[in-house]
Structure formats: C-alpha cells, structure tokens
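Hi all, long-time lurker, first post. I run a small reading group and we've been trying to get comfortable going from sequence to structure in the token notation. Rather than ask abstract questions, I figured I'd post a concrete chain and ask someone more experienced to write out its structure so we can walk through it together at our next meeting. Sequence below, copied exactly:
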Amino acid sequence: MIIVPIKENDSIDKALKRLKKKFDKIGIKKEIRQRQEFTKKSVIRREQLRKAIYVQHLREAENE
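-- Answer (accepted) --
Happy to help. Here is the structure in token form:
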C-alpha cells in the first residue's frame, strides 16, 4: 500500500502529485500493463536483448 504523508497546509493537488510520483518510482503502472496479457519468456528475453544492444550502441557512439 502506498502512503502519502500530508502536512496541514498541503493541498489535495500536491498530495496527488506526490502519489503519482510514487507510482512512477515503484513502477506499478508498468506492472499492471504487463499483467493484462500473457507474454512468453522467450519474447521477454528477446526484448531485453534488443534493449541491451540498443543501449550498448548508444554508449559506444557516446564514447567515440
């Protein structure tokens, strides 16, 4: 459960903003989207590999 401490002078908008930031940090939205449909392990590994290759190319281009 996510708890957002609210001070006496804080508005609801600030509390909602903090709640949204916590959701993003924890990654709940991403996890919910992933659980909506089943993805095979091989597909997940393939996506991770593509991402790793992409990041490696970026880092190599940055170092050159």
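A couple of things your group might point at:
Residues 12-63 form one domain.
The first helix runs from residue 12 to 26.
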